[in-house]
Structures are given as C-alpha cells and as structure tokens.
C-alpha cells in the first residue's frame, strides 16, 4: 500500500449510478458522500473524464468514497488498476494519484483524499464547463445507469 489510508475522490464513471461504481466499489465502501475538488477543471475523455489541477479552475464535482473496514488495500489496488496508475510519475500512467484537499458538501470541511488526475500521456478533450461529469452526460442525452 502506498501512502496514507485516505478516502478517494471520484468524479466520473466511479460515481453512484455510473458503470464502474458497481463494478469497482460494490462491497468495498462504507460511505459515499458528495464533495468538490477546488482548484481543478474537468475535461471530456474517451468515455471517461480527466481532472486537471488548475488554481483558476472552478472545481470538479464528485464524491468522497470511504473504504469499508478491512477493504482499503483491495480498493486501492482495484482503483489503481482501473485508472492505469503504476506509481508516481511512471511513463505508462494514464492518471496520477495525488493527495488533494477536497471540500465535503455536508459541512464544507476540507478533507484530504486521493484523487486520480490526468497524467502526461492522457489526452484530455474539451473542457466540461460546470465541472460535473454527470451533467455533461445528461446534456448530451447519454442515459445514466439506474
């Protein structure tokens, strides 16, 4: 296991109702709560989004995912594999896993969390202006998974 046992901030296909939520998070989480990553922007990608750190960015909407008791190591491995993260700065990374402060919606607290952001080999598409992957999908007529 690398680093501290932090919650994960998810903003795309791992959010509730999206395909990878059920595939990767089911049975491995204790709590999912609304949150926002300040100082970041969101870009469309090939079926999934990319967050990029940008101090002038309006933020990215997502969820804080807390691992179930005893499931942290497994959850970390599953998410690293899904996000094609091979270690800090690895040339094959699609995403880098960074420790970032995330704004928890329920109380406005800043919470440290792991966030997967676009790595050097990622090719982000157009910016999603409101920073919310789910609203972008709804606008384009892509149905959400029930």
Could you name the key traits of this structure?
17% helix, 146 residues, single chain, Hypothetical upf0131 protein ytfp, disordered C terminus, alpha+beta, Gamma-glutamylcyclotransferase AIG2-like domain-containing protein
Compact summary:
Residues 8-134 form the Gamma-glutamylcyclotransferase AIG2-like domain. The protein is an alpha+beta fold.
CATH names the topology as Hypothetical upf0131 protein ytfp
Order of helices and strands: EHEEEEHEEH
The geometry reads as: globular
Structural class: alpha+beta
How many beta-strand elements?
A: 7
CATH homologous superfamily annotation: Gamma-glutamyl cyclotransferase-like
InterPro entries: AIG2-like_dom (IPR009288), GGCT-like (IPR013024), GGCT-like_sf (IPR036568)
Protein name: Gamma-glutamylcyclotransferase AIG2-like domain-containing protein
Pfam families: GGACT
Domain Gamma-glutamylcyclotransferase AIG2-like: 8-134
């Amino acid at each position: 296991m690398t680093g501290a046992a932090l919650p994960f901030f998810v903003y795309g296909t791992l959010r509730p109702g999206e395909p990878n939520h059920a595939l990767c998070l089911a049975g491995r989480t204790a709590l999912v709560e609304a949150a926002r990553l300040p100082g970041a922007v969101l870009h469309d990608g090939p079926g999934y989004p990319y967050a990029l750190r940008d101090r002038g960015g309006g933020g990215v909407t997502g969820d804080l995912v807390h691992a179930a008791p005893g499931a942290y190591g497994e959850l970390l491995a599953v998410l690293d594999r899904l996000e094609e993260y091979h270690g800090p700065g690895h040339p094959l990374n699609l995403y880098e896993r960074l420790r970032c402060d995330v704004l928890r919606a329920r109380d406005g607290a800043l919470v440290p969390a792991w966030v997967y952001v676009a790595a050097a080999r990622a090719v982000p598409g157009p910016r999603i202006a409101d920073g919310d992957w789910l609203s972008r999908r709804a606008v384009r007529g892509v149905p959400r998974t029930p």
